[in-house]
Amino acid sequence: MTRSFDLRTVSGWFRLIALAEAVSWAGLLVGMYFKYLGTPRTEVGVKVFGPIHGGIFIAFVVGAVLVGMAHKWGVGTWILALLASIVPLGSVIFVMWADRTARLTPAAGSAGVLQPGGAVPETT
């Protein structure tokens, strides 16, 4: 596992959820294609990926709130994160942007490392 998906950090969990959200969006879009345009027409894809995507979507929004609080995001970053949750594959684009602009880097004084019993700032 790479450092980006380090599940000991809040940011690592958020990256993983963002990737899962994008994959579930893609699955739902394929399911919608077969429901409305494909041959044979079937609702199986929507019935499978709809609830999966709904749950992961909620996890992404909750994750964005937690990461935003941990990293002290400004209002603009919050708005972009919430908009990214709506746009297909926007979650991955948001995470790439947030990485490049250091918005997923821990705030000064805390590393956002998860320890048993809760988040404990890591001293450097």
Automatic annotation (TrEMBL):
InterPro entries in the cross-refs: DUF3817_TM (IPR023845)
What keywords are assigned to this protein?
Cell membrane, Membrane, Transmembrane, Transmembrane helix
Membrane-related topology note: Multi-pass membrane protein
What are the TM regions of this chain, as residue ranges? 12-36, 48-69, 75-97
**Nuclease is among the record's keywords:** no
Domain named DUF3817 is located at 13-100
Where does the protein end up?
Answer: Cell membrane
Q: Which GO terms describe its cellular component?
A: plasma membrane
Protein known as: DUF3817 domain-containing protein
**Organism per entry:** Mycobacterium aquaticum
Q: From which lineage does this chain's organism come?
A: Bacteria, Bacillati, Actinomycetota, Actinomycetes, Mycobacteriales
